[in-house]
Design brief:
about 190 residues; mainly alpha; about 55% helix; about 0% strand
Length: about 190
């Protein structure tokens, strides 16, 4: 398992496309949301003491791509239903035209970016004795990449530096996002 700081840094790197899609303010919010969702696959650590089934142990069900995709869709649907009106009414958002579809795409994408970045970085540091099945139940085989040690401070700090420098550079670039049907703001 990678240190939490490594998960946060990889989530920031997975959040970079938000700058192109939504621009400054929404991209910062997107990056912050990926920080929360990047740690959610580790909720399986809470199950370990109570369940013996291998899929309910660490690197089990919550560390699979299908789990992240399905839970992300649910997360996005709940966010679209409950947050759209609040977002449009909030003065800091500076928009009154955020559709439920936009909220759904934004929240689902942030969940997917955070969750998939978690799985990806865990795969990069999975030792043969801690193999993962990231595509279970579609492909039940174990996958081991093991490029870096999970507790490598230089790697974790390096990821943080690269991620933060990238986001600061994008923030300072003052480029406008592409016009898409999921735009946020005026």
């Amino acid at each position: 398992m990678v240190e939490p700081i490594g998960h946060g840094a990889m989530a920031l790197l997975f959040a970079v496309p938000a700058w192109v899609l939504w621009g400054r303010r929404p991209a910062v919010t997107f990056a912050a949301l990926t920080q929360v969702t990047a740690l959610l696959p580790d909720i399986d650590l809470l199950f370990e003491p109570y369940f013996s089934h291998p899929q309910l142990q660490h690197h089990g069900l919550t560390h699979t791509v299908p789990f992240v995709l399905v839970v992300g869709l649910v997360f996005g649907a709940v966010a679209a239903r409950t947050l759209t009106r609040t977002l449009n009414a909030h003065r800091l958002i500076r928009s009154d035209s955020i559709s439920p579809e936009t909220t759904f795409v934004f929240a689902t994408s942030a969940f997917w970016a955070g969750g998939l970045s978690h799985i990806f970085v865990d795969l990069l540091s999975s030792a043969p004795d801690a193999a993962m099945e990231p595509f279970w139940p579609i492909y039940p085989g174990e996958i081991v990449i093991n490029i870096v040690a999970y507790d490598s401070t230089p790697v974790n700090v390096g990821l943080v530096v690269v991620a933060v420098v990238t986001h600061v550079a994008l923030y300072r670039a003052e480029r406008y996002p592409y016009e898409t049907r999921w735009s946020v703001g005026s």
